[in-house]
Write the structure tokens for this entry.
Amino acid sequence: MPEQLQTGFTAFVAGIAWGKWIGVCFLILLGGVLASFAARGVTGFMQERASRHHTVMMRRLVFYVVLALFLVAALREAGFSLDVVLGAAGILTVAIGFASQTSASNMISGLFLLVEKPFEIGNFIEVEGRIGEVVAIDMLSVKLRTPDNLYVRIPNETLIKTLVINRSRFPIRRLDLTVGIAYAEDVSKVEVILLGLARQNPHSLEEPKAFVLVTGFGPSSVDLQFSFWLPADKVLEGRSRMMVDIKRALDEQGIEIPFPHTSVYAGSHSEPFRVQLLSPETTTKTGEPDAD
Amino acid sequence: MTIKPELQQNMEDGQWASPYALSSGQTHYHELSHTQVWVTLLEQEWQVRYQRMAEDDDQTRWLQTISHEASDGGLSEQRFVRPDSGNQVTYVPVMSRLAMVIRPYQPLTIAANSECTIYVGTLLWMRIQVGDKNTQLLELPLADPMMTWVGRNTMEGELCYSAATFARLMLNSVPKRPWRAITPVRIVNQQDQPLLLERFSLPTPLLSLHRNEQGQLWTPQVTVHCESGMNSARLRVDSGVIAAAGKCALVSAAREQHSRGGLVRAYDRMFG
């Protein structure tokens, strides 16, 4: 019996066309190596000529196309008919699709993201309250790097469904600052001061022009909206510097920035609150012992 | 930090694009436009410090002196490793990297089917080059430029520097300062209606800088043809400076090169 098995195994091993299979493996390996070389070449070529987003997209495209060509060649070498393989792949896709709906949905969403291009690699986007720089747009997810240097993975499906704010799409942005001034102050004087600050600030743009609006009469202040334009990459420093300048300028001009006040009213028929000032003699000296 | 008036009297006028030799430990001090610059040579490094001064419109000279006095502390310095053993430092004027929007203090109206030439003085950047190979250390603007946006809307357009100008029509009345380059701008209004010149985008990266025998800096003339509407114009940059500038030598080439024999380009938003 073992002899028969051995003879059968030997016949099986001898029956395999080793040369053909080695050729197939070699083709796949060669495909992988050449695809990665081609991808690197494309990256080197495009890095200085195109944006990071386009470079990454092109690198992936070149890699997968070269690899696919070699895989097809390898399959032919192995004796598979391409029609049969594609048919089998179709059935397999349906089966996998049912089995992994989420992944499939993310992949399709990823394709839509690539076509629609709401953001590119390097853009600052805001998704569900999280702000970050897009570092990768992959098959299943988009990766962000937040300003505090966290790595955030967002599934593509979420990005398709939810609201996405791209903060770096346009080169300039408007900043709206709310400034509250006391009711006693002259609004037009404050307006002149604020517009003067916009002219002096090196980050603030001359055009589109800065403006000041009165947005409401708050509980303790007249609320103004001070809007000015900045280059998109100067927003953070521009905001901070302008806030400091506003505080300093209003202080210098003696204009009060009020904090919430509360007036306690005891009613017209009741007695006013009795306030008595204590003379220095009756106050207890702190720091001295109460008893000898 | 301010320099005493008696020291100012001993200072000499600075020259663009001519090398100054420093020995180790010496500082080259400059006072021009709204800027004070200190360039110091040490055994192994170059140091550059600069700060803005209060505006003094009467100042027309570029004062410079070489001494062993370093600047006061408190200014942040930029340090550069010496690229070679050369001890020369050269200051080259360059035009701005972004286009400059010129805004006359009072808008100027150009009648229908007529033309005029205005003379515009633009802010320069100082490029500091050192050593035998003239290695560039840095470029610094000689005043803080304002920025503005030029475009059809807030989505399409470009960021530019902005400068107010008197839009002088007489060359004699243009102040000649070493830190300003004079650009003659010829505006040809070919429309049947007057052209109100409120803002004008000057393509400074396309302009080269030339120096005449008096040390004044000039750029080639820019000609703008306004044919249809306020928002489109054709622009041409001459290859040489105008005759009124006198005999000139090229000091620095344009940052961006244009086609031979001048440039013709259509602009969407050149005016207004």
Q: What stands out?
A: Chain B has two domains: 5-89, 93-267. The CA atoms of residues 33 and 59 of chain B lie 8 Å apart. The helical segments of chain B are 5-10. The mean pLDDT of chain B is 82.
